[in-house]
Design a protein that fits this description.
- With 264 residues, this protein is an alpha/beta fold.
- It has eleven helices and seven strands.
- The chain has a single domain, classed as NAD(P)-binding Rossmann-like Domain (Rossmann fold, 3-Layer(aba) Sandwich).
- Helix content is 47%, strand content 14%.
- The protein has a seven-stranded parallel beta sheet, with helices on both faces.
- β1, α2 and β2 form a beta-alpha-beta unit.
- α2 packs across α10, α4 runs parallel beside α5 and α5 packs parallel to α7.
- The model has no long low-confidence stretch (mean pLDDT 95).
């Protein structure tokens, strides 16, 4: 058994939404390190997206030939999803890996929770993965075969698996919905040799999870493994699911949380 080949992404093309920072950037870095020829990242803010693409290309192009390409597009609407798919189609004749990572959260007391907050979070966290995958299905099918399936990886959350005390109502609901959507999509797309799975991150420091970022010691004390997540923790599971090693993992969601979920 060739273990290096088992986890290799050599020559594959990937797209990661919300790829300019946080978990998306961790995954983009991991894919380039594992041999992807091109990793497209998208985000709303062009400057941040461009800067991350330049940083990762400089880091990996000389080493493995991989390139990170910035496509700053807002994918919170169906029209935005179609625009991104069209931009990918201009540049590629196939797409091997799609990571639906872009997300949002909104915290407010139950009695005051605004409809605008609900709509923003549910649209980006739940509607976008469905309709972006739909928009890119032609390119995913072109990449897919029984020997090497294409991959769709949805980034959900441990808050979709169990409930915490924060009043983030649409976040928890949308991430739980995304886990179930992953199961439903996986059954249909398996017919096309497209394997769909999900990652459920726990406490990783990021601009979204400011608690883990700004109070890492306190969060670590509540985490069974005794620390917050590292870049390698997220990259590792994302590489596993995207590579041959994850070809038989269909419709599953994997908690990457240092044991937080089972300790709640």
């Amino acid at each position: 058994m060739d273990v290096a080949k088992l986890f290799s992404l050599q020559g594959r093309v990937a797209l990661i939404t919300g790829g300019s920072r946080g978990i998306g950037k961790m995954i983009a870095r991991g894919y380039l390190a594992s041999g992807c020829s091109r990793v497209y990242i998208t985000a709303r803010k062009a400057a941040a997206c461009d800067a991350t693409a330049a940083e990762l290309t400089a880091e990996y192009k000389g080493e493995s030939g991989g390139e990170c390409v910035s496509l700053p597009i807002d994918v919170s609407t169906v029209e935005g999803c179609k625009t991104l798919a069209a931009e990918i189609a201009k540049r590629e004749d196939r797409l091997d890996i799609l990571v639906n990572n872009a997300g949002a959260a909104w915290l407010a007391p139950f009695d005051e929770f605004p409809e605008s907050g609900w709509d923003k979070v549910v649209d980006l966290n739940l509607k976008t993965p469905m309709f972006l995958t739909q928009a890119l299905i032609g390119l995913l099918r072109k990449a897919a075969s029984a020997e090497q399936p294409a991959k769709v990886i949805n980034v959900a959350s441990i808050d979709g698996m169990s409930v915490n005390k924060q009043e983030t109502y649409p976040y928890a609901a949308s991430k739980a919905g995304l886990i179930h959507l992953t199961r439903r999509m996986s059954l249909r797309l398996a017919e096309d040799h497209i394997v769909v799975s999900a990652i459920c991150p726990g406490p990783f420091p990021s601009d979204m999870n400011t608690t883990a970022r700004d109070h890492a010691d306190a969060v670590a004390a509540r985490t069974p493994i005794g620390r917050v997540g590292k870049d390698e923790d997220m990259a590792g599971v994302a590489i596993f699911l995207a590579s041959q090693a994850g070809d038989y993992v269909v419709g599953e969601h994997i908690a990457v949380d240092g044991g937080v979920t089972i300790s709640r």
